[in-house]
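Q: Could you fold this chain for me?
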Amino acid sequence: MTDESAMEIGDLRRRLSSIPVGVMSDVLAAMGLPDQVLSSVLRPIGAAARLAGPALCLTGQEGPERPAPQGGPKAVYEMDRRITNGCIAVIGTGGYRVSAVIGGNVGISWHRRGCGGIVTDGLIRDVAQFVAIGMPVFAGCITPLASKGRWSFSGIDVPVILPGQTSKSVTVRPGDIVHGDHDGVVIIPREHAGQAVRDAEVFESIEKKIQAELEAGSDREEVYKRNDRLGHIRKAAGISSPKLP
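A: Sure. Below is the predicted structure, expressed as C-alpha cells.
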C-alpha cells in the first residue's frame, strides 16, 4: 500500500483544501521533489481555481477520431465512465494548440459524475458553461474552435506529460494527486502524498504564526529566525540547510 492510499482520499482532499499550493510547492522542494510545479502557461479559467484529487490521466492526438476497437467503446465516451468522485481529469495534448480539446458538454457530463476539476496544456471552449457549473479548469488558453475532425482522445489511464515550470516537463501518473489554486498547479507523487500533506500542515501552522507576528509589527528577520517553516522536514531527512527566505 502506498503512502497516498493509506490516507482516505476524501480526507486527503479535505486537508489539501486548506493548504495553499505555494506551501505545497515549498514542502515538495524540501522533500527533494523540486520539479513538480506545472508551467505558469496553465492558468485558471474563470473564478473557480481550487482543486485537489487523484489524477485521471487522458491523452489524445491531432486529427479525426479513430474507429473504436472491435467490440469496444470509443475513447471519447469511455473516458466519461472512468470518472470517479473527486478525481481531477488531466489531459495531455503533446503541445497541440489549434482547437479546443474539451467543451461544455463534456464538462457537464464529468461534473455530474463527480469530477473535481480539469487540468490540460491544451485549449478549452464554452467557458461560460464551466463557470456556471463551478468546475475548476486550468488550461493553456481559450478558443471557440471545436475539436471535431481536428483532435481526439486516444488514451485513458496512461501517464501524461505536461509542461513544467522548473523543468521541461512533469509526468503525471494515474492516481498522482493534483493540487491547484490561483497560484498554479503542483503534482504530488502518490507515494509521497500522505507525508507531503502532513508536512504541509505543519508548515502552514508555522506560516500563520509568522503572519500574526508580522501583523503585530515584529521585525521580519527576527520572526523568521524564531520560526523555521521547513525544519521538521530537514530534521526527518537528516539535512542541514538554510532556512527558507
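A (continued): The CA atoms of residues 24 and 200 lie 6 Å apart.
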